[in-house]
Write a structure and sequence with these properties.
This protein is an alpha/beta fold. The chain has two domains: 3-82 and 162-245, P-loop containing nucleotide triphosphate hydrolases (Rossmann fold, 3-Layer(aba) Sandwich), CATH 3.40.50; 94-156, no CATH class. Helix content is 36%, strand content 24%. The chain contains nine helices and ten strands. A hairpin with a 2-residue loop joins β1 and β2. It is globular.
């Protein structure tokens, strides 16, 4: 990736329209993710957050509109070489041991696994490194989520796209994840994630975006969103948007 591409917007969405049959899921959606920021995507269940993410990754074909990743069309496979993605319903292969899964994932990025670094990261997330010697199929949901997050951070990509990364995490691991996201941003990287936990977004996000009733209804800082809707809490401001625009 050239210096010019690194300075380009990690994600730029323009007039995006996605339909499933006769149902319009995304209608003229606009979104900008700037370099070196954490952007949180907010929306009710089923509103299209995962569809938006999958469209960015060229896993869903839009009816119209454009998505650029670092200035390149998302349709070009090489446009995604600078990102790592963790899906919402993450289930690693149960037959692989934890170490094998990490090694396999990093091999996709032409990287070798440093077990010492991975072990420290496991401990930070409250996962006993000894568990990495066990088959992933024996893990709880939370343990599997931690291993997926480990692989994502270990990839050291300049852009992380995380769909509901807090899912299944205990309070300690949630706190550690927030610390790691802040440290990742401080190192000059960009993070785009969706979550239902608005208190976490208020705490760590530079920018939040609200997707509701097929359109992007707000993009700005958490403080700007609270101020715009006259609420002290981000959750209440979000509910005002939902009430204003209906189902």
């Amino acid at each position: 990736m050239t210096d010019g591409q690194i300075k380009a917007a990690p994600i730029a969405v323009r007039d995006l329209v996605v339909r499933y049959g006769r149902t319009t899921v995304l209608d003229g959606v606009q979104l900008d993710v700037r370099p070196g920021e954490i952007l949180g995507l907010i929306g009710l269940n089923g509103v299209g957050k995962t569809t938006l993410i999958k469209t960015m990754l060229d896993l869903v074909r839009p009816r119209s509109g454009a998505v650029d990743l670092y200035g390149e069309s998302h349709r070009a496979p090489h446009s995604r070489r600078a990102l790592a993605y963790l899906p919402e319903k993450f289930t690693p292969s149960g037959r692989l041991r934890g170490w094998e899964y990490l090694e396999l994932t990093l091999s996709y990025f032409q990287m070798k696994l440093d077990r010492a670094v991975a072990g420290d990261l496991a401990l930070a997330f409250g996962l006993d490194p000894a568990a990495l010697a066990r088959p992933v199929g024996t893990y709880s949901k939370g343990m599997g989520q931690k291993v997926g997050l480990m692989a994502t951070f270990l990839s050291r990509r300049p852009l992380l796209i995380l769909d509901e990364p807090m899912s299944g995490l205990d309070p300690q691991a949630r706190g550690q994840l927030k610390e790691h996201l802040l440290a990742y941003r401080a190192a000059g990287n960009t993070v785009f994630f969706s979550s239902h936990i608005l208190a976490d977004m208020d705490e760590i996000c530079d920018t939040v975006a609200v997707l509701h009733a097929s359109k992007m209804r707000f993009q700005g800082t958490p403080a700007q969103m609270r101020e715009a809707y006259g609420e002290a809490q981000l959750e209440r401001a979000f509910m005002r948007i939902v009430e204003q625009h209906g189902a």
